[in-house]
Amino acid sequence: EDQVTQSPEALRLQEGESSSLNCSYTVSGLRGLFWYRQDPGKGPEFLFTLYSAGEEKEKERLKATLTKKESFLHITAPKPEDSATYLCAVQGRGGADGLTFGKGTHLIIQP
Amino acid sequence: DTGVSQDPRHKITKRGQNVTFRCDPISEHNRLYWYRQTLGQGPEFLTYFQNEAQLEKSRLLSDRFSAERPKGSFSTLEIQRTEQGDSAMYLCASSLLQGQDIFGNTIYFGEGSWLTVV
Q1: Across the interface, do A42 and B111 touch by the CB < 8 Å criterion?
Q2: Per-residue pLDDT tens for A16-73?
Q3: How does DSSP classify residue A93?
């Protein structure tokens, strides 16, 4: 059974204070690892897809990296508008085609 | 491209009543998914369709739940005899699968339909 564990559960940063969010996973044959952003009361918004270890993707202040066991979402010089819950999910070769999500990291950026 | 659309956005119902949610996927997307999310948890997979065929159902999808996707376009999720434990946000998502299903296909979510059972 695919599993995703995200840490920390919550993170409070000052504006401009860089940090990283962790996503540890076990999956039977990784087809893709996905990062989403979710604002309160809304559906998840797609950020990145990573397919293989060593891959990196960037978008504005966010950079996602992938190893064989975990992924990191690095946030550089964050702004208050980056406050949200960040969800990590995996899609494996066995079992359901759907994504298996972690519980998310609730990120708060204080001005 | 207007994104995945869900209706209604909010529904309050009495225990024992039936409710139905509608989802319109991104046009030309051939895969459509239903997920459920409760507070403090990530979305949980319920079921998915490729075109009009329902290919997979999670163990979470009890007999009171039924989903359809007639003609491979919009989809409906019906919950019969609702229980308080059904209170959650129901998320619809869609993706375009092209060729062989080797690499993960990006799944785009709608804004969700909130269900409160009182």
Answers
A1: yes
A2: 999 999 999 999 888 899 999 999 999 999 999 999 999 999 999 999 999 999 999 9
A3: S
